[in-house]
């Protein structure tokens, strides 16, 4: 048996070991595995094959799946091909790493080293199982709300809401900012005009008649008198 064949076999076995730990998700199996029939905590990476940041964290993500094996299910979803699921979860950037447990979805925002991701995921699981709060290193992202009187609802028929800022308040603040800027500019214009008026008035009041013009002026008034 040649060394080349041995290396090839080892590579295949290594790949199989990673694939058994890292679960490949798609539009067809996502809802049934992650949302509907699962009571597990899921740690899922939404990625794009061409994304350089996704490529850099590939090995760490595979190691994370191995470290969390038997504790938390770790998945991979290509957001460029599995468009339905990516759209439902409002994926706008790559990679996006989400922690999903039943109806709660959180976005991971910490280190992308395998040991750090595994540690944060374990702590997050403890928090979710104990009190359902927002785990450290994560932010609230989506809320899964099944329709009433429906025991099972696929994710495509659910209402996933993204938390957004209060739009009326944001619009009011923008309007107030515009008004204040307009008022500030008006004050500056008024000050400039006032200073110009004062300058012109001062010159007019301070003018003296000298030379021939002064003599003509006096002669004219003496003649009138």
**What's the SSE pattern?**
HEHEHHEHEEHEEHH
Largest sheet: 7 strands, mixed
Annotation, overall tally of beta strands: 7
Kindly provide the radius of gyration, computed on alpha-carbon positions and rounded to a whole number of angstroms.
36 Å
Strand content: 15-25%
Task: Summarize model confidence as the mean pLDDT.
Answer: 77
Which ranges are low-confidence, i.e. pLDDT below 50, for 5 or more consecutive residues?
5-19, 146-166
What does this structure look like?
The protein has 2 domains: 3-164, Glutaredoxin; 169-224, no CATH class. Residues 5-19 and 146-166 have low confidence and may be disordered. The N and C termini lie far apart (135 Å). It has helices at 3-21, 30-36, 52-56, 58-67, 83-88, 114-130, 167-205, 211-224, and strands at residues 22-25, 42-47, 73-78, 96-101, 104-108, 138-145, 159-162. Helices cover 52% and strands 17% of the residues. It contains 8 helices and 7 strands, in the order αβαβααβαββαββαα. With 225 residues, it is an alpha/beta fold. A 7-stranded mixed β-sheet has the order 1-3-2-4-5-6-7, with helices on both faces. Helix 4 crosses helix 6.
Report a brief summary of the structure:
Helix content is 52%, strand content 17%. With 225 residues, it is of the alpha/beta class.
Layout of helices and strands:
Elements: H1 3-21, E1 22-25, H2 30-36, E2 42-47, H3 52-56, H4 58-67, E3 73-78, H5 83-88, E4 96-101, E5 104-108, H6 114-130, E6 138-145, E7 159-162, H7 167-205, H8 211-224
Parallel strand pairs: 1-3, 2-3
Antiparallel strand pairs: 2-4, 4-5, 5-6, 6-7
């Amino acid at each position: 048996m040649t060394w080349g064949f041995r290396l090839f076999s080892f590579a295949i076995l290594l790949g199989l070991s990673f694939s058994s730990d890292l679960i490949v998700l798609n539009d067809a199996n996502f809802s049934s595995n992650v949302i509907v029939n699962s009571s597990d905590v899921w740690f899922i990476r939404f990625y794009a094959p061409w994304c350089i940041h996704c490529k850099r964290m590939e090995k760490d993500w595979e190691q994370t799946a191995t470290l969390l094996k038997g504790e938390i299910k770790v998945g991979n979803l290509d957001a460029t091909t599995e468009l339905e699921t990516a759209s439902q979860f409002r994926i706008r950037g790559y990679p996006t790493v989400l922690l999903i447990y039943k109806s709660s979805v959180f976005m991971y925002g910490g280190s992308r080293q395998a040991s750090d991701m595994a540690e944060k995921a374990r702590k997050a699981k403890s928090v979710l199982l104990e009190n359902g709060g927002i785990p450290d290193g994560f932010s609230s992202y989506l809320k899964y709300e099944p329709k009433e009187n429906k025991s099972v609802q696929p994710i495509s028929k659910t209402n996933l809401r993204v938390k957004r800022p209060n739009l009326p308040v944001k619009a009011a603040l923008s309007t107030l900012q515009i008004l204040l800027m307009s008022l500030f500019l008006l004050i500056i214009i008024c000050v400039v005009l006032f200073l110009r008026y004062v300058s012109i008035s001062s010159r007019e009041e301070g003018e003296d008649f000298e030379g021939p013009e002064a003599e003509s002026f006096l002669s004219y008034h003496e003649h009138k008198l």
